[in-house]
Design brief:
This protein has 2 helices and no strands. By secondary structure, the chain is mainly α.
């Protein structure tokens, strides 16, 4: 581990890095607004999903 630490220190010195990195806070995300068009498509998709029934896989014959 000592060799790895020494290698990292020499690489940082070669790049000119000193000290710790600076950390920036990310901006807060805004809440999404609910639009009537999106809710209508969700309802239509839900109706289509319930109406369509797929047949299951047929078992193999012995």
């Amino acid at each position: 581990m000592a060799a790895l630490t020494a290698s990292m220190e020499s690489a940082k010195a070669a790049r000119g890095e000193t000290g710790d990195a600076t950390v920036h806070d990310l901006p807060q995300k805004r809440a999404a607004k609910n639009t009537p068009a999106k809710t209508a498509t969700k309802k239509a998709a839900a109706k289509k999903a319930t109406a369509k029934k797929t047949t299951g896989r047929k078992p193999r014959s012995a």
